[in-house]
TrEMBL record:
This is phosphoglycolate phosphatase. Pfam families: Hydrolase. It comes from Meridianimarinicoccus marinus. Pathway: Organic acid metabolism; glycolate biosynthesis; glycolate from 2-phosphoglycolate: step 1/1. The keyword Hydrolase applies. Keywords: Hydrolase. GO terms for molecular function: hydrolase activity. The keyword DNA-binding does not apply.
Length: 224
């Protein structure tokens, strides 16, 4: 069964506002104020909590480093979980596109570097949990993307064959995951990096979810 695997943050949903808000909770707790900007720092938000903390503490000055990131990370996760869907929303057409894939017989899954519990909480709040046959997060297995194991397991859990799958994402991590798994990668261009993701040489670019089937067709044969 062909399987389409989606990254979550920056691919299915714009979660940057809530992620940055959670990081700023950490900085405010240290008396540093809001060090990240919801618009200018979107790209960093989609690279994870530690990346946001690293950027913010780097702006705070040379007195902050790895220990501050380590101490701040659980605080960020707690703050994020408490307000996970204040600003987050699905990208236009994502709900309809996944629904069409499932109606056509594709298996669908999520493979994200967000902790599994938070990922499940978010997709439930967004009302799309039932549209995915499997969800694998950063802590589901001992390794995470770009290691190919989480991707392959997300396909297997969805009832598919890892050799008949494609990964849709938005960052270099997704590109490297697909390369390591030996499968095609589609990168979205509607994230903060825009057409810049073309520099990562994915097999295809997705400009909007209305084009998904057209972009997918040459890479993954439709279900029989």
């Amino acid at each position: 069964m062909p399987t389409v695997v989606f990254d979550l943050d920056g691919t299915l949903a714009d979660t940057s506002g809530d992620l940055i808000a959670a990081a700023n909770v950490v900085f405010r707790g240290r008396g540093l104020g809001d060090l990240l900007n919801p618009k200018a720092d979107q790209s960093t938000a989609f690279r994870g909590g530690r990346a946001m903390l690293s950027l913010g503490f780097g702006r705070a000055g040379p007195g902050y480093g790895a220990d501050d990131i380590k101490a701040g990370y659980p605080i960020l996760l707690e703050a994020y979980g408490a307000a996970i869907d204040t600003h987050s929303c699905l990208y236009p057409g994502a709900l309809e596109a996944v629904t069409r894939l499932r109606s056509a017989g594709y298996r669908t899954a999520i493979c994200t570097n967000k902790p599994e519990g938070l990922a499940r909480q978010l997709v439930d709040r967004l009302g799309v949990a039932d549209l995915f046959d499997a969800l694998v997060g950063a802590d589901t297995y001992p390794v995470r993307k770009p290691d190919p194991l989480p991707f392959r397991e997300s396909v297997r859990l969805a009832g598919g064959d890892p050799a008949r799958a494609v990964l849709i994402g938005d960052t270099e991590t997704d590109r490297e995951t697909a390369r390591a798994a030996g499968i095609p990668c589609i990168l979205v261009t509607f994230g903060p990096d825009g057409m810049g993701v073309s520099d990562l040489a994915p097999e295809a670019l997705l400009n909007g979810y209305g084009d998904l089937e057209t972009v997918l067709a040459p890479l993954l044969p439709a279900p029989a």
